[in-house]
C-alpha cells in the first residue's frame, strides 16, 4: 500500500492551509505490494483479533500508547481496556505484526458462506458482431492471448451480440450457438431467461480442457451483414434505418445470468465487452446525433454538452453488476462517436477498466488483455481512511462506489496493484494542530480484500493433488498507519511539497469541474490556482511589496526560484492545459478520447500521471550511452543539446527520435541488446497499459507524432504558434495575474 501526501509536513491550521495555496491530501494505492519507500507489510493471521477503538473504530497500531491492561487510541486519544486474549497476545510483542510495524497485512477467517462457495474465477467475453472483419480478428487475437493468461480451473463463457444475443456451448466436440432475438424497442428486455436458453454450467467451460474448442468457436465468428441488421431493426426514428448493436439488453441479460450463481459457482466474475461502435438498438441505445447537433449550436458550450451521460441506463446497470459480483471491462475499438460519457459508468463503477482504440491496425488490445489478466488483483474490497480528530477527509476521488450507509467507506469490486485513489483534507476547526499539547497528525488506511489462490501442485511427488481445479479464497485486512509532521511556517510547508501528488489532486479537481461546469471552467480553475499560488508564494517570501496599494516594489518570481519543490508546477499546469483532457474540441479533441483520458488519469498513481501529463524527454549520444536524463519539451532543447538520439516517454506512447543531423552510421532502429532497448523494455514491463512504441528518423519520416509533444513553443490556448514562445508567454500571463491578485488584496 503506497501512500503519498501533497505535503509531508501538514499545515498547522486552516489559515496556514489557505494562505499556502497548496492542495492538502493524499494518494493511496491500496493493493500495491510495497509502500512508497519499497517496504513490504508484515504479514500475519488473526486479523479479527486486532483491537479497535470503541470511539472512532480505528485499529490498534504502533503509535498507540499501551500498558499492561489498556491502550489509548492514537487517532482520537480514547482510552480503552484490553481483553484477556489481547493481554496474553501482547505479552509477546515480537510475535504480533501490529506491534512490529505500522504496515500490516493480516489474514481474516473465511465466512461460512464463503467456505461453501466454489471460488473459481469466471470470465465472459461479449463480442460485438455489428462490426467488421478487422475488429473481429483483433478481438480473436486478444481473447486467444487472454486464454494463455488464465489460471487452470478458470471458467470461460463466449457470448455475441448484435440484433440478437448468442450463447456458445464449447464443451462438446463442435461449438454450438443458441441465439435470442433482442427486442428493438427502448424499454424491451429479452423474452426468455438465458438460463432457459442454455444452463450456465453448459455456457461456462473449464479453460484447461476447452481452450482449443474456445479457439475453434472464435474462428466461426462473422460480422452480421447490413441486410440482417436493417431487416431486424426496421425503420428507426424519423425514417432513419437503425443499426443492430443491442449492447444494453445483452449486458443486462448476461449480468442477471451470472448473478444467479454469484456466491455458489463463482466469487468474482469478469465480463470483457468488445464494442465497435455505439449501442444503437434496443434498451440502452444511445442517440449519437447529439454529437453533430450540439456542435452546430453556437450558443451552447459543446465541450460541456457532451461530457454528461445522456441516459442513466449504464449507471443503473453498473449497480446490477455490483450486486452480481461482476466487474465489466469495456474495450471500444472505434473512431466514431460512441458516447463513452454514458457507457463509462458500467466499467468504472463496477471496478473494471475502459479502453479506447481508434483503429484495429495498430491496436495494443491483445497485449493489454494479457497484461491485465496476468497481474494479481483483489476483489470484494472495502477501503476506509481515518484521521486523527483535528482534521477529516473532504472529497474522495477514484473508481469506486461509496457505501450507502457509512460515510467515508468505499467499495471496490476489483482492484489491481496499480489502482490509485485520492483524498483531500480539511480541518475540523480553526485551531488545527496549533492547540497546546496537540499530538502529531495520524492517518490510518484500512483495506479489506479477498484474493483467489490457484490450486497448488505436490512438487515432491510430481503428482497433482486431489485439490486440482479447486481454488481457495483468502480474506485479508491490510492496514497502514502514518504519523505526519506539522509545518511551523510557510517555508517548511513549501519545502515539503510533493509536486506529483499536487498534480494528481489537481487533475481530479479539474475533471470534476469539467464534468459539472464544462472544459472551459476546468481550465479557468487550473489557471487561477497557479496565479493565486504564485501570488501567495511571493507574499510569503516577501519578494514583492505593494506601495500605496498600486505601485510595485520588486519583481514577481513566477519560477519559484526560492523553493525547488515548487519549480516544476508552472510547467505541469501548462502541460495539463495543453493536454487533450482540457483542450477544446476546435483543436480536434474527440469527446470519447477526453472521457477515456478522464478514466485513465483518475486511476493512475502520481509518478505515472506525471509522465502522462508532462512526458520525460531524455537524450542519447549512442544507443548504448545516455547523454542527458531530462530535457524540457521544446525544439530549443533539442537543438542546444546536440545529441543525435532522443527518447520520449509519454506513458501511453514511447518515441525514439533520431535527429536529422544524427550520424548515419548509428544503427536504426536501436539494436535489441542496447541500453536504450533495455530501458524501453523495462518501462513497458512496468506499465498498467501497453505503450505504443514509435521509431522516427528526422528528415526522412513524418515527425509530427514527436513534434506534437514539444509543447513549450505552443500557445496555451491552442491557437497555433505565437510570435512569443508559448510557455514564456504563459508565464508572463501568470505574472500579470498574480500582480492583479495582490493589488486587489483578496
From TrEMBL:
Record-annotated membrane-spanning stretches: none
Organism the protein comes from: Prunus avium (Cherry)
InterPro entries hit by this protein: Sec23/24_helical_dom, Sec23/24_helical_dom_sf, Sec23/24_trunk_dom, SEC23_SEC24_subfamily, vWFA_dom_sf, Znf_Sec23_Sec24_sf
Gene name per UniProt: LOC110769956
GO biological process: anther wall tapetum development; COPII-coated vesicle cargo loading; intracellular protein transport; pollen exine formation
Coiled coil start-end: none
Superkingdom of origin organism: Eukaryota
GO molecular function: SNARE binding; zinc ion binding
Domain Sec23/Sec24 trunk per the UniProt entry, residue ranges: 120-372
Protein name: Protein transport protein SEC24
Amino acid at each position: 500500500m503506497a501512500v503519498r501526501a501533497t505535503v509531508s509536513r501538514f499545515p498547522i491550521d486552516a489559515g496556514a492551509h489557505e494562505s499556502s495555496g497548496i492542495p492538502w491530501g493524499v494518494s493511496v494505492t491500496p493493493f500495491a505490494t510495497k509502500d512508497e519507500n519499497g517496504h513490504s507489510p508484515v504479514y500475519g493471521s488473526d486479523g479479527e483479533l486486532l483491537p479497535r477503538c470503541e470511539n472512532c473504530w480505528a485499529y490498534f497500531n504502533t503509535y498507540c500508547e499501551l500498558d499492561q491492561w489498556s491502550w489509548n487510541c492514537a487517532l482520537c486519544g480514547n482510552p480503552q481496556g484490553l481483553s484477556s486474549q489481547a493481554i496474553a497476545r501482547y505479552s509477546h510483542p515480537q510475535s504480533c505484526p501490529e506491534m512490529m510495524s505500522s504496515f500490516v497485512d493480516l489474514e481474516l477467517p473465511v465466512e461460512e458462506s464463503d467456505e461453501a462457495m466454489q471460488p473459481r474465477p469466471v470470465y465472459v467475453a461479449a463480442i460485438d458482431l455489428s462490426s467488421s472483419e478487422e475488429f473481429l480478428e483483433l478481438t480473436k487475437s486478444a481473447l486467444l492471448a487472454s486464454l494463455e493468461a488464465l489460471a487452470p480451473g478458470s471458467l470461460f463463457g463466449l457470448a455475441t451480440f448484435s440484433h440478437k444475443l448468442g450463447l456458445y456451448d464449447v464443451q462438446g466436440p463442435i461449438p454450438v450457438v443458441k441465439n435470442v432475438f433482442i427486442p428493438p424497442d427502448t424499454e424491451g428486455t429479452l423474452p426468455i431467461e438465458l438460463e432457459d436458453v442454455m444452463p450456465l454450467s453448459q455456457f461456462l467451460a473449464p479453460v484447461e480442457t476447452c481452450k482449443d474448442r474456445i479457439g475453434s468457436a472464435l474462428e466461426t465468428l462473422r460480422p452480421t451483414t447490413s441486410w440482417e441488421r436493417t431487416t431486424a431493426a426496421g425503420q428507426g426514428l424519423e425514417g432513419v434505418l437503425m443499426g443492430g448493436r443491442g449492447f444494453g439488453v445483452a449486458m443486462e441479460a448476461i449480468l442477471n445470468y451470472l448473478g444467479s450463481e454469484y456466491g455458489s459457482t463463482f466469487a468474482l466474475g469478469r465480463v470483457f465487452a468488445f464494442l465497435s461502435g455505439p449501442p444503437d438498438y434496443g434498451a440502452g441505445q444511445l442517440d449519437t446525433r447529439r454529437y453533430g447537433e450540439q456542435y452546430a449550436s453556437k450558443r451552447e458550450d459543446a465541450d460541456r454538452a457532451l461530457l454528461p451521460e445522456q441516459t442513466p441506463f449504464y449507471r443503473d446497470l453498473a449497480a446490477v453488476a455490483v450486486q452480481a459480483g461482476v466487474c465489466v471491462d469495456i474495450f471500444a475499438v472505434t473512431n466514431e462517436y460512441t458516447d463513452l460519457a454514458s457507457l463509462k459508468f458500467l466499467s468504472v463503477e463496477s471496478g473494471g477498466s475502459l479502453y479506447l482504440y481508434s483503429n484495429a491496425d495498430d491496436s495494443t488490445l491483445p497485449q493489454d488483455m494479457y497484461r491485465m489478466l496476468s497481474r494479481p488483483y483483489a476483489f470484494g474490497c472495502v477501503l476506509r481512511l481515518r484521521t486523527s480528530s483535528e482534521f477529516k477527509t473532504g472529497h474522495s476521488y477514484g473508481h469506486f462506489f461509496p457505501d450507502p450507509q457509512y460515510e467515508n467507506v468505499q467499495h471496490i469490486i476489483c482492484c489491481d496493484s496499480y489502482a490509485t485513489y485520492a483524498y483531500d483534507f480539511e480541518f475540523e476547526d480553526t485551531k488545527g494542530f496549533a492547540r497546546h499539547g496537540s499530538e502529531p497528525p495520524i492517518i490510518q488506511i484500512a483495506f479489506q480484500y479477498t484474493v483467489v489462490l490457484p490450486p497448488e501442485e505436490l512438487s515432491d511427488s510430481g503428482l497433482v493433488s486431489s485439490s486440482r481445479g479447486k481454488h481457495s479464497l483468502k480474506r485479508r485486512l491490510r492496514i497502514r498507519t502514518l504519523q505526519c509532521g506539522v509545518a511551523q511556517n510557510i517555508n517548511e510547508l513549501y519545502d515539503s511539497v510533493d509536486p506529483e501528488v499536487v498534480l494528481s489532486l489537481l487533475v481530479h479537481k479539474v475533471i470534476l469541474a469539467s464534468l459539472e461546469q464544462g472544459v472551459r471552467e476546468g481550465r479557468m480553475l487550473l489557471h487561477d490556482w497557479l496565479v493565486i499560488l504564485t501570488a501567495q508564494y511571493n507574499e510569503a517570501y516577501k519578494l514583492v511589496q505593494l506601495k500605496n496599494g498600486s505601485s510595485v516594489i520588486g519583481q514577481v518570481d513566477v519560477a519559484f526560484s526560492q523553493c525547488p519543490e515548487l519549480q516544476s508546477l508552472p510547467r505541469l499546469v501548462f502541460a495539463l492545459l495543453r493536454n487533450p483532457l482540457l483542450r477544446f474540441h476546435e483543436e480536434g479533441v474527440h469527446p470519447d478520447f477526453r472521457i477515456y483520458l478522464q478514466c485513465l488519469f483518475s486511476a493512475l498513481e502520481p509518478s505515472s500521471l506525471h509522465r502522462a501529463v508532462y512526458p520525460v524527454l531524455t537524450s542519447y549520444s549512442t544507443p548504448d550511452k545516455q547523454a542527458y536524463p531530462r530535457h524540457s519539451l521544446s525544439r530549443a532543447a533539442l537543438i542546444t543539446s546536440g545529441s543525435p538520439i532522443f527518447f520520449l516517454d509519454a506513458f501511453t506512447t514511447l518515441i525514439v527520435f533520431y535527429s536529422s543531423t544524427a550520424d548515419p552510421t548509428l544503427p536504426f532502429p536501436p539494436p535489441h541488446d542496447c541500453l536504450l532497448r533495455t530501458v524501453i523494455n523495462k518501462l513497458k514491463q512496468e506499465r498498467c497499459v501497453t505503450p505504443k512504441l514509435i521509431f522516427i528518423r528526422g528528415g526522412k519520416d513524418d515527425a509530427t507524432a514527436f513534434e506534437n509533444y514539444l509543447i513549450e513553443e505552443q500557445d496555451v490556448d491552442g491557437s497555433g504558434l505565437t510570435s512569443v514562445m508559448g510557455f514564456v508567454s504563459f508565464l508572463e500571463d501568470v505574472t500579470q495575474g498574480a500582480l492583479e491578485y495582490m493589488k486587489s488584496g483578496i
